[in-house]
Design brief:
Blueprint: H1 2-11, H2 18-26, H3 61-86, H4 91-110, H5 114-131, H6 139-163, H7 176-185, H8 200-206, H9 212-224, H10 230-236, H11 242-256, H12 266-293, H13 298-320, E1 323-325, H14 327-344, E2 348-353, E3 358-360, H15 361-382, H16 386-391, E4 398-407, E5 410-417, H17 424-433, H18 445-450, H19 473-482, E6 486-492, E7 496-504, E8 512-517, E9 520-525, E10 540-543, E11 547-552, E12 555-558, H20 562-565
Parallel strand pairs: 2-4
Antiparallel strand pairs: 1-3, 4-5, 5-7, 6-7, 8-9, 10-11, 11-12
Helix pairs in contact: 1-2, 3-4, 3-6, 3-14, 4-5, 5-6, 6-7, 8-11, 12-13, 14-15, 15-19
Length: about 575
C-alpha cells in the first residue's frame, strides 16, 4: 500500500486525495482503516485546463488488478448465495455475499466504471435489507443476486476484452430488467457495513504499552493536527517506539485477514518447475555416475546424499506452488446444477466432500468440461422428475454428490447421483442394434457400462437443452484420457450412478527413465514403457525384408536401435 501511495504522489498521475484512493483500494478486502490512524492529505493542485470529471488510468495495471479481483469476488458471491439458499437463517452467508458487492462497488466507483458501480450498489442495497431483517431470503431474491452476478461477470469480461484490444464498446449488457426486479422488493435505503476492527491506540493500550490517559491526550493533539496520525503523535512524544507501533499495525491487519497471499505469474512458476526438473535430471545422472565409479569417499557421499534430499524437497515444494484446492471447481458445478435443475423442472441438491483436495492449477480448466458433461447427464438423464421420484419411494429432491481425494499420485473425483441408474438391458439392446457387439457375447456389468463411452451409443429418448446435442460420453472419455486419466462406472438400476475419474495430480512432472545413447542422454516416460527386459542373444533374429526382430513371449517384435533412430554413432 505504501508503494501505491508513493507511486501516485511522486508521479502526479492521480490528481486528488491520496488517502481516499488508499481507502478505496483497501475496500477490495473489506478492510477499513481505523479512524485514529487516518491521515488527511490535501488534494494535489490540478493543472489549469485539466479535465476534472474522470480519473485517467495511465497505468493499466490497476484496472487489470480490479478485473482479477472482481472475478474472484463474483465467484465468492455465487458460492455463498447458494449456501445462503440452503441455510437462509445464517447471517454469515448474508455478510459473505454483501461484502464482495461492497468491494466491487467501491473500486468501480473510483475507476469511473459507472455501470458496474450502479448494479453493485443496487445489489448491495438489496442484501443490506436482508441483513437488517427487512427482507426474507426467497428463491426470487436468490435468482436476482445470481442474475446480477452474471451481468457483472459479463461486463467485467467485456472490460477485459477492451483492455486487451478485443471487442467494441464495453458494457453492452442490459441490466434494466435486473434493476427493476430489485426495485420491486426493496426501498433503496442503504446502510454501510462497518467492520469491528480495533484501532491502533486501543491495541497499544490492550498490550499495556500506553495508558488510557496517554491515548486521550494523543487523540486531542491528533485532532488539532489532522495531518498527523495518532501513531506519529505517540512516537514524537516518546510514548511508543516505531517497532511497537509496527507490531500494533500488524495486529490490526490480522483482525481483517487471516491469510496473506501473493500473486505470481503462472509463467514464472512454470519456469521454476522446469528448472527444478532439470535439476532432478542432473541429480539422477550424478547418482548413476557415482554408482559406476564406486566412490568410497564418505564425506563426499554424505554431502551428495544431502544434495539429493534437498533437491527432492525443492521439487516437492515447487510443484506444490501450482496446487490449488478443487473447491472452486466444485462450487462452480454447484451453481451449474442449480441452473440445470431449474431449467429441467427438477429439484436437485448438491453435496461436496474433499473440497480442500489440491490439484495442479493448469489442470483445473482441463478437467472442468468433462466433469460438467457428466453432471449434465446426471441432471438430465439420471435424476427423475419430482413426481416420478415420489412414486418410486424416493425424496422428491434428487442428490448429486461430488467427492475428491488423493490416492497415490492421483486425484480421484467421484460424481454420484441417486437417480435412475444405468439400464443394462437398454444399453445392450442399443449396442447390438448398432452392431457394436453380438448377442452371443458374454459381458460383465463393467463391460456393459463401458459401452456408453463408445461413439453414437446413447439410450436417451430425446435430445434436451440440458445435456446438449451431439456430444456423447465418448468425448468425455477422450478428454479424460488426454489428461492421462481414466474413468470407471458403478451403477445400480433405479438407485443411481457413480463416475469415478482418476487424474494425475500434476502435468508438470512425468516419471521417466534416463537412457544413454552414445554420449547423449535421453528420458523415456515410464507411461510409454510396456515392459523392461534384458534379452538373451538367442532371442534376436534378422528376418529378410523385415530387419531385426526380437522374440518376446513367443511374439516377434521389430527391434529399433536408438543410435540408428537418432543417428548417433559415436559409441
Amino acid at each position: 500500500m505504501q508503494e501505491i501511495t508513493e507511486r501516485y504522489e511522486n508521479t502526479g498521475t492521480y490528481q486528488g486525495n491520496v488517502r481516499e484512493f488508499i481507502e478505496t483500494v483497501f475496500s477490495l478486502t473489506g478492510e477499513e482503516i481505523a479512524k485514529d490512524t487516518q491521515e488527511t492529505v490535501p488534494p494535489c493542485p490540478q493543472e489549469e485546463g485539466a479535465p476534472e470529471e474522470k480519473f485517467q488510468i495511465e497505468d493499466e495495471s490497476l484496472l487489470k488488478d480490479f478485473i482479477t479481483e472482481a472475478l474472484e469476488y463474483i465467484e465468492q458471491i455465487e458460492i455463498n448465495i447458494l449456501n445462503l439458499e440452503q441455510n437462509s437463517e445464517d447471517k454469515n452467508y448474508i455478510n459473505a455475499v454483501f461484502r464482495p458487492f461492497h468491494s466491487i462497488k467501491g473500486v468501480a466507483s473510483f475507476l469511473n466504471l459507472e455501470e458496474i458501480r450502479d448494479l453493485s450498489h443496487n445489489l448491495e442495497d438489496l442484501l443490506d435489507k436482508v441483513r437488517s431483517d427487512e427482507l426474507p431470503v426467497t428463491p426470487q431474491l436468490i435468482d436476482i443476486v445470481l442474475d446480477g452476478a452474471d451481468a457483472l461477470k459479463t461486463m467485467i469480461g467485456q472490460l477485459k476484452d477492451n483492455l486487451e484490444g478485443r471487442g467494441g464498446e464495453p458494457f453492452e449488457v442490459d441490466t434494466t430488467g435486473i434493476e427493476s426486479r430489485i426495485k420491486q422488493i426493496e426501498d433503496h435505503r442503504f446502510v454501510e457495513e462497518v467492520p469491528n476492527v480495533k484501532k491502533v491506540g486501543e491495541i497499544l493500550m490492550d498490550d499495556g504499552i500506553i495508558t488510557e490517559d496517554v491515548l486521550e491526550e494523543s487523540l486531542k493533539i491528533a485532532q488539532g493536527s489532522p495531518e498527523k496520525k495518532i501513531g506519529e503523535t505517540l512516537i514524537s512524544k516518546g510514548k511508543v517506539t516505531p517497532k511497537q507501533l509496527s507490531q500494533a499495525l500488524r495486529k490490526q491487519a490480522d483482525q481483517i485477514s487471516d491469510t496473506t497471499t501473493i500473486r505470481v505469474d503462472i509463467g514464472k512458476l512454470d519456469d521454476l518447475i522446469d528448472m527444478v526438473g532439470e535439476l532432478v535430471i542432473t541429480q539422477s545422472m550424478i547418482q548413476e555416475a557415482l554408482k559406476k565409479q564406486l566412490n568410497t569417499d564418505r564425506n563426499l557421499m554424505r554431502n551428495i546424499s544431502q544434495f539429493f534430499r534437498i533437491t527432492s524437497e525443492l521439487q516437492r515444494v515447487s510443484t506444490g506452488l501450482r496446487m490449488i484446492p478443487i473447491k472452486q471447481t466444485f462450487q462452480r458445478i454447484s451453481r451449474l446444477v442449480r441452473d440445470l435443475a431449474k431449467d429441467a423442472g427438477k429439484l436437485v441438491a448438491v453435496e461436496m466432500q474433499g473440497e480442500e483436495t489440491e490439484i495442479d492449477r493448469n489442470m483445473v480448466d482441463e478437467i472442468y468440461n468433462p466433469i460438467v458433461h457428466m453432471i449434465r447427464n446426471s441432471v438430465d438423464h439420471g435424476i427423475e422428475m419430482p413426481e416420478e421420484r415420489i412414486k418410486l419411494g424416493k425424496s422428491e429432491q434428487g442428490l448429486i454428490r461430488l467427492k475428491a481425494y488423493h490416492r497415490g499420485g492421483n486425484i480421484i473425483i467421484e460424481i454420484s447421483d441417486d437417480g435412475r441408474g444405468l439400464d443394462k438391458e437398454k444399453i445392450l439392446e442399443k449396442a447390438i442394434k448398432n452392431g457394436i457387439i453380438n448377442s452371443a457375447d458374454s459381458l460383465t456389468d463393467q463391460d456393459i457400462f463401458r459401452l456408453i463411452f463408445l461413439p453414437g451409443l446413447s439410450t436417451a429418448k430425446a435430445v434436451t437443452d440440458v445435456s446438449g446435442r451431439g456430444v456423447g460420453m465418448d468425448v468425455v472419455k477422450q478428454a479424460v484420457e488426454k489428461l492421462r486419466g481414466k474413468i470407471d462406472i458403478e451403477s445400480l438400476y433405479r438407485n443411481g450412478t457413480t463416475f469415478i475419474v482418476s487424474f494425475p495430480l500434476t502435468m508438470a512432472i512425468i516419471d521417466g527413465i534416463i537412457l544413454k545413447v552414445g554420449t547423449e542422454y535421453y528420458i523415456l516416460p515410464t507411461m510409454a514403457i510396456r515392459q523392461m527386459l534384458r534379452p538373451s542373444r538367442d532371442l534376436y533374429n534378422n528376418i529378410i525384408g523385415k530387419g531385426e526382430t526380437i522374440n518376446v513371449m513367443g511374439q516377434l517384435l521389430p527391434l529399433v536401435r536408438l543410435y540408428d533412430l537418432f543417428m548417433i554413432y559415436s559409441i
